[in-house]
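Researcher: Let's do a round of design. I'm pasting the structure tokens now; please hold your answer until I've finished.
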């Protein structure tokens, strides 16, 4: 007998388990005939899910540098849901006395009290979540266009909306179960009423946290450079930005604690139920509730740390930076035409970028070999008061610059430029 699959299993085992369960359910449904449209739609969804799970299994088995640990709970729940639905289908078929080929009890087949179409939408949510997580984890090694990025972000948005609707349905079912078993006013049900009230309070607190996080995320926060003076005009903006970021971290931590508390309340309520069937349904709802919230977390972050840039410049001695200093995924290209062009790309620290700028300025820009211009060796030093309007902070970050002469134009000062924050 195979060992049971649990959340502590490895990603390869969980993806293989979900894939096997989905394929088995697909084949079981295919063994019937004369099924209605909602069952045909379910089989189409299962076929698409199988393809996604197959790709995930291959990726998880072939690579070790892609972090897909966030998919542990969705994969476990997806696999269990397929197994449970198959068991209900076979049980319903056997009760009807059908030989499997002429089963006509599809309308009576329910999962967690909902229709086949609702089950299909649930599997669609898991499929989309897996696609988003798999795409997001491999973005740094893949080619991405602006159009595909927009498609990726739109998918994340619509999937989040669908998952939130699914979560509302689950909350409604939990509320119904709590109401049904905790309506008595005698002392024997005092504990049940207390659990019910605590659940309602926890639900409200989760809503408050979600609203606050959404409000903060809508506020445009401009990153404050580390090089700015703490007593400068941007001091208040720095305080506000840092305060809001700390608030977001606190809210995220509070939400996670509330979710764990909610799951504990559902478990506690399930232990008070005398009906094994009711307790099993409550346990399934609890798992589905936790998985739906987890999928929402995955989708809500998809596509938010990606920047697409296309650098293009013409002229001599151009310096281009296409880097990320904030762990964002950068997709783009540097294109430059001219003598002495220098291009830098990749993931670098802010300090490294500043050092490259200083070194480039300190050693001088490459000579464009115009006989009318001085070479680097005999270029006169630039006075401190001639650099960027005596901006001391500019000089410290990017260097002194280089004074060039020209027969046709007055002397100008050119200094390398730092990158825009990605």
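Researcher: That's everything. Go ahead.
Model: Designed sequence:
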């Amino acid at each position: 007998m195979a060992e049971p699959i649990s959340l502590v299993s490895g990603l390869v085992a969980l993806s293989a388990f979900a894939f096997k369960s989905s394929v088995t359910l697909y084949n079981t449904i295919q063994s019937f005939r004369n099924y209605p449209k909602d069952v045909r739609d379910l089989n189409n969804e299962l076929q698409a899910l199988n393809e996604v799970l197959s790709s995930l299994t291959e990726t998880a088995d072939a690579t070790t540098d892609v972090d897909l640990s966030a998919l542990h709970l969705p994969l476990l729940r997806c696999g269990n849901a397929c197994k449970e639905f198959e068991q209900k289908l076979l049980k319903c078929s056997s009760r009807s006395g059908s030989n499997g080929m002429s089963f006509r009890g599809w309308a009576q087949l329910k999962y967690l009290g909902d229709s086949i179409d609702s089950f299909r939408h649930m599997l669609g949510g898991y499929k989309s979540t897996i696609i988003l997580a798999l795409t997001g984890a491999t973005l740094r090694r893949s080619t991405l266009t602006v159009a595909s990025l927009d498609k990726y972000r739109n998918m994340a948005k619509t999937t989040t909306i669908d998952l939130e609707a699914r979560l509302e349905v689950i909350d409604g079912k939990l509320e119904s179960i709590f109401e049904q078993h905790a309506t008595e006013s005698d002392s024997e049900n005092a504990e049940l009423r207390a659990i019910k009230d605590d659940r309602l309070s926890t639900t409200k607190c989760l809503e408050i946290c979600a609203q606050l996080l959404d409000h903060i995320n809508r506020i445009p926060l401009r990153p404050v450079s580390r090089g700015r003076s703490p007593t400068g005009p941007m001091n208040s903006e720095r305080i506000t930005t840092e305060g809001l970021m700390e608030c977001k971290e606190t809210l995220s931590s509070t939400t996670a604690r509330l979710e764990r508390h909610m799951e504990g309340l559902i478990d506690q309520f399930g232990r008070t139920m005398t009906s094994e069937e009711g307790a099993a349904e409550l346990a399934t709802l609890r798992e589905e509730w936790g998985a739906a919230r987890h999928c929402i977390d995955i989708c809500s972050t998809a596509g938010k740390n990606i920047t697409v840039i296309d650098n293009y410049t013409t002229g001599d001695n151009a310096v281009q930076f296409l880097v990320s200093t904030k762990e964002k995924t950068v997709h783009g290209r540097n294109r430059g035409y001219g003598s002495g062009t220098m291009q830098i790309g990749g993931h670098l620290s802010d300090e490294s970028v500043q050092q490259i700028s200083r070194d480039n300025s300190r050693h001088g820009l490459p000579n464009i070999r115009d006989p009318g211009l001085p070479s680097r060796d005999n270029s006169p030093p630039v006075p401190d008061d001639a650099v960027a309007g005596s901006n001391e902070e500019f000089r410290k970050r990017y260097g002194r610059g280089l004074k060039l002469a020209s027969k046709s134009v007055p002397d100008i000062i050119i200094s390398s430029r730092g990158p825009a924050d990605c």
